[in-house]
Design brief:
Structural class: mainly alpha
Number of helices: 2
Distance between the termini: 16 Å
Number of domains: 1
Mean pLDDT: 91
Length: 58
Amino acid sequence: MDYFTADLTRRIRETEQALKQAVDSGDDFLAEVQEEELQDLVRMASDHGVQVLPETAA
């Protein structure tokens, strides 16, 4: 796995965790921000041919 793929995967996992924490704590604004960041990262992965499974499937 090259650096780009590894870093992008790490960033996606961290954002998934941050989103879960925001949802669990009831912080709707932070959850929305994290959801948008996650969508951007997943789109970037797709644009570069990086397959990313949902955290629950990893």
